[in-house]
Amino acid sequence: MNIAIVGLGIIGGSYCKALKSYTKHTVTGINRTEAVAQKALNAGAIDRVGTPESLAEQDIIILCMYPQACLDFLRENGKFIRSDAIVTDAAGIKRAICPEMQALAREYGFIFVGSHPMAGKEKNGFDVSDADLFMGASFLITPCGAPSEAVGTLAALARSIGFRTVKITTPEEHDRMIAFTSQLPHVLACAYVLSPSCPNHNGFSAGSYRDVSRVANINAGLWAELFLENREPLVEELDILIDNINRIINAIKDEDKERLYALLEQGHQVKQALGE
Questions:
Q1: pTM
Q2: DSSP for 233-276?
Q3: Vertex 243 angle, CA 237 and 246, to 5°
């Protein structure tokens, strides 16, 4: 197939490199900054640098930009996309963009299938993209009314570049679970390193510090957009977290060892039951 990747950051660049490494598809790269697209071409990550007009030749178009940028790109360039082409995104939210994506698909005639690759690093940009970034990862699909054949094509493509699990879900379930599994840990990590003790951690820290603080190395612009677009599920998860922290705080303040033990053991049992 002819596949276009729009946005050559860590996710888009990794899509390009994975497709070139593990498939025989022809890969076109489109990026706002021409120098990055040229770098991808020189690295062999893409077969050519594309233009909006070249979208007419693509079987699959993968949008790897901020959620709002994905919508803006389609509004401006949807007229170039073939009616039988599959358009997907890589955004970490779905409820805020899927209805508009579906409306644009109806307006321009292409097929939209929402998706979200559950992979990444703490650093950003094409330079840290990796052909093996998706190995063993989970690939989420929100069909949004797309034909089953299109969903199947996208699922098969995901598996061909290393995704181990393909999960079909709804925008609502996606956003609710991502609030817990992805967004909440990023909030927690940022809040954690805002402690005045953090700058003095060297020599006192080991695995626990690294595990909790790792994702605080955050792309603030992207995650601020994701947090705000998914604010209701995220705030619900934050309220639960704050309540659980307060229960532990109160047990410590009250010097209630039995209550504190019970809370800590409850967490231990939940984790143990998951087998992780």
A1: 0.91
A2: HHHHHHHHHHHHHHHHHHHHHTT-HHHHHHHHHHHHHHHHHTT-
A3: 140
